[in-house]
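Issue 218. Parser rejects a valid record. Input:
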Amino acid sequence: MPVDGYSAAPFALDPESVATLDAIREAMLDPSPRRIGRLDQWGLADTYETYAEIAEYRETPIIMADGTQIDAALSIPRNLAPGQTCPVVVMPAPLVTIGRTAYLGMFPRLALGGYAVLAYSQRGLAGSGGEIHVAGPQDVADGVEILDWLTGLEGIDADRIGCFGASYGAGTSLLLAAKDSRVKAVAGASAWGDLFASLYENDTRHTAAFEALVALFGEDRCSKEFRVVIEKIRNNIIDDEVKEFARVRSPKQYLKEYNDNNLPVLMTTYWHETIFSVPAVVNFFKDLQSPKSLLVQIGDHGNGELPGLLGLIAKPTETAYRWLDHYLGGTAGNGTQPQFGVRSEYMHNLLSELSHDSWEDYVLPRKRFHLGTAASSKADATMAEGQPQPGWTRSLNATGESTEAVVAPQLVKTGLAERVGLPHTYKTTAVDRDLAAAWTTAPLEQPMRVQGELELRVTVKPQAAGDATIVAYLMDFNPATGNARIITHAPYTLTGRPAGQATTVTFPLQPAHYVLGKGRQLQLIIDSHDPFFSDANTTPSTIELSSPKSTEAYLDIPLAPLP
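Output the parser choked on:
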């Protein structure tokens, strides 16, 4: 069920990557000159010839206690001395149709680093039997059984087990580590911290991302419990059953276990992440008391680690190798120590990287920009520091139509374009001011940076019903062209109020790290519909935005001159 124009398959690998992985798998299963020679077209023949010399690869189903067969692949170093053991990296699959095969490009580096590797597809995914439980208690129980099976093998060091996972595999890894203390370190790329916050932000359903994930799971393979939750979310029934479903699948619920076990946790996410909540990842990171590292990159879900999964150089996987080496004693990384605290790229400079000891050290102090009035009902208003601006009212026509302002034209793929220096251009001067209101700062007198957390306050009054949805976007606006690029966003849905009642709402926007050039302007746009989110508005109707005295509207922005 795709939502408006959003693709139902934003995670699909391109045909060339699939062909590469297929050829790699064939060469690992049969390391003959003919099979390995096929990899020459991708420059990989030498890599997998070396791999075949140092490690044995086999695909081996693992049978769970209930008879379910889990599709798994095992790599063990060759020529271990009698009694010699090696560290092992367990890799639950990301949410892609090829399952654990997505990790094959990482096997040579890990094997050269002295690791055994076990990659597996979770229950119901790819070649594994059973039904999909979405990293639920059944998947965690499977993980424990898999560790039991693995530690019974000759050559495996049961005291040096780590997990690496991307996306679905990252969540599975973290939840397994909470249950089983044999996991001594976790590296999770495109991870989540709170599943409920990822589904339901500021009382607003993330409809497009949710439907894309459901389509990828395949509803016919989902457990009865999950199918019930799917229908409830579609019908906006956010009850205790839905909340409990998300709660037990949220790493933030197991902070005590991580902290008590002093579990080292590496997580990566993205500034334009459209699948899992970035604030929830940040909050989870801040609450961890164990050794921890957070990498935040340009782009969207899965963008940065994809080359690394294919065996190329990528910051998330290079960081993961160093992290696992440090705690498990392997040598897959480049020999340098892992970095702790926060590492961040800023949009849109892929070569940038800032390092801070903690999130608190990373974020800039916020400046308060007061939302002002406009000369006419359709003109843009001012946004400036100084005195609060009470007394104005702006009206939005809620029609169910999108404006030029949207979170992203495409899930995942818009962020991928950002990573190669092609961010989407928004023509915000063309946004219908009957459908949206805009506030703009004066041109910046010097280059500035937005770095950290943002907060918006505005008073909302739906005229036709008590429910209303608004979506706020902060843009980097170029007055010379009338074009803009998105910095951050957030939705808010007001529920359960009488029609015509004004309510002041205060809510966070997604954190951001963005550099603006001299002469650019910060532009806030608020409208009532984005196909990325559910829409609680009665259509057609009118929503009034206002700034009453003592609860004046503002946007707090962590803004400072560029060093």
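Fixed in the parser; the record now loads. The chain is about 25% helix and 30% strand.
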